[in-house]
Amino acid sequence: MNGVAGASDSVPGPGDDLPADIVRTIRLVSDHTPRVAVVAGSGLSSALEGMQERARFAYADLPGLPDPTVPGHAGHLVLGEIAGVPAVAFLGRFHLYEGHPVSVPALLPRVAYALGARTLVVTAAVGAIADDLAPGTVVVIRDHLNFLGENPLRGWRMSDGSPAFVELSRVYDARIAALAQAAGAALGTRATYGVYAALPGPTYETPAETAFLRTAGADVVGMSVVPETVPAHALGMQVLGLACVTNTVGAAVDHADVVRVSRETGREIGTILAQVLPQLEP
Q1: How far apart are CA 206 and CA 224, in angstroms?
Q2: What pLDDT digit, counting tens, does each position of 97-112 carry?
Q3: If DSSP states are collapsed to H, E and C, what string results for 215-269?
Q4: Labelling 222: which of 135, 167, 204, 206 has CA 20 to 30 A away?
Q5: 126 membership: H or E segment, kind and range
Q6: Per-residue pLDDT tens over the stretch 18-71
Q7: DSSP secondary structure code for residue 206 in this structure
Q8: CB-based burial label for 219 (10 Å; 0-12, 13-18, 19+)
Q9: Is the pTM above the cut of 0.85?
Q10: In terms of Cα–Cα distance, which of 141, 139, 135 is closest to 264?
């Protein structure tokens, strides 16, 4: 399993009890234990249309989780099965540009881990930096660039009180990424590998920023993912990132266009997940 050495013995954290509080609330209703967690980005709840639902909770009813304020983010936690695999789905995420501290989006992987999930799948709508990525392409994230101006593990400690010095050379699990890319190719989906650049938003990129990101090695750009994947990796979870290209960076775009393309491509991501998740180790 990818993650921190010794993560099975001791995992880092920021020192609060919010995940435990949320799990206690959930356990009053359901004892469902997920193996996999999926975070649905803007308009990407369509990737989870085939999920067999067992229980559903509004974020606002769970301690510490606010309502998302972004269109295309429903704000629900759903327990059930995806292709027969026990799962928890987060329909909507939180962003720094909404005014949240980075600890809020980090709650999603922390809650998933506390529920029992050991694999995290993040989906996201992205703009294409690379010239050969057309809208509708699924990008399997192989690495990221963190330009958020914030580290998701700031203030986290190991159980002995030392800082969470987490090694990030393998945040995204190579084996699961290869399964996803192969599944996409077999299904006729435009699926390729790429590097994700995380910017704080909510504005889209200037031409100079786009040129800089291309030079830095980015293939796609978005405003999320990193606050979820870095904490998940720190907890020892396997991580898969699937990004839906909704627009070419620099072309005219608005959020309604992003959500529309995401909904269309989300179903293809759902088909990829249905192929990949049953192949994960128990």
Answers
A1: 18
A2: 999 999 999 999 999 9
A3: HHCCCEEECCCHHHHHHHHHCCCEEEEEEEEEEECCCCCCHHHHHHHHHHHHHHH
A4: 167
A5: strand 119-128
A6: 999 999 999 999 999 999 999 998 767 778 888 999 999 999 999 989 888 776
A7: P
A8: buried
A9: yes
A10: 135
